[in-house]
Amino acid sequence: MATLSATLTIETFRAEGDGCLGYLVVDEASRTAVAIDPRLDLVERFQAALAAHDARLTHVLDTHTHADHLSGVRRLAQRTGATVLAHVASKLKGPSQRIGDGATFALGDTTVQIVDAPGHTPDSIALLVDEHHLFTGDALFAGGAGRTDFMGGNASDLFDTFRRFAALPDTTVVHPGHDYVGRAVTTIGEEKAQNSLFRERDRAALVARLASKAEPPRNMAAILRHNLGEADATTIAPADLQALREEQRDTVLLDVRSRLEFEGSWIDGATNLPLEELDARVDEVPEQREVVVVCRTGVRATIAAEALARSGRRARVLEGGMQGWRRARLPMREGRRRLPVDRQVQLIAGSMILTGIALGTLVNPWFLGIAAFFGAGLTFAGATGTCGLARVLLRLPWNRPLAMSAEAGAVRAASGASTCAAPAPPER
What we know:
Blueprint: E1 2-3, E2 8-14, E3 21-27, E4 32-36, H1 43-53, E5 56-61, H2 73-80, E6 83-87, E7 97-99, E8 104-107, E9 110-116, E10 125-129, E11 133-137, E12 140-141, E13 144-145, H3 155-166, E14 173-176, E15 186-187, H4 188-194, H5 203-209, H6 220-227, E16 235-236, H7 238-247, E17 252-255, H8 259-264, E18 265-266, E19 271-272, H9 278-281, E20 291-294, H10 299-310, E21 315-318, H11 321-327, E22 333-334, H12 341-362, H13 368-384, H14 388-394, H15 408-415
Parallel strand pairs: 4-5, 5-6, 6-7, 11-14, 16-21, 17-19, 17-20, 20-21
Antiparallel strand pairs: 1-2, 2-3, 3-4, 8-9, 9-10, 10-11, 12-13, 14-15, 18-22
């Protein structure tokens, strides 16, 4: 949380594992708030924060049409009565108030101004709050920028967006949509000094530097359908699912987590069908029966349920996924418990960095190279979404599913296929 003034505060929400950031800006005096880039799997946390501040959500928006995660804007608006804001260039379906450059709205006595910020996507916007805090979405990150190689991205437009940002005071605090370097907050002045993409003053040079392409986000088409309002799976609370299964014993419980996750814990009677196999095996899912889809938090289940609905299956999503089921203290089966691969990576890399620093300080400075090597690896993984250590760990015996060897889908799930960050080639 960062205090802006005597009455205005910011709550920052960080998604687990991928550096994705969302924000809740609250005016304590008027008890009103705006939610910026709320992820679907973090909606409950936004609601809990609103309750803690005893605040009413007046507006909710995405800074652009996300392609890497499911938006929680519509669900949060449905639960709170907030107005959905969307850029005039957005293709979002459903009720919303359209906004463009220079539009404003108030939080108590504070003005929130919309700033057009195209480049990453055509409908990208930034929000300038209290004339001092800039929420940049995926246009500008600490030390980097949003990629411009898909969804109507345009590096020349991003150059213009950077020039608009650069005209703001150096003290302007920047709150980006992702944190790939372990620093969620920066300033315009810091980015002018340290971000080689942001300080590039030659349009053609910036366009050339952002010309390389990277892998698109996993499940991008399904994510876009959801985020544009073309699909919206209904949910069922854990207690209601338990009652439904007692009443309708032929209810199909479809768990779309990886086999590795499923073997750790599952709901009795659930069938494991990993999301990456769903399209090829959709005919295995009954058409005339109630289907409830389960994953860890509800994100993959939402993608699966919307795909099943398009194929004529009635599908709902277990609200909160296995985490919600566990919180409700409902019965579940426990299997072979293993430390998640991302935590194995963190433990190994962290311990090697500490070891390298200790040996470099106490024995020989050359040992600092160990810390530098693993630090560079973590930075590369954050910037590219590719983690070599995770791929190696997934091939080790204790990380293999009992039913089969580690599959490519599990590798992608652990290491990630892409990020929203633009590749940053060496500065000229």
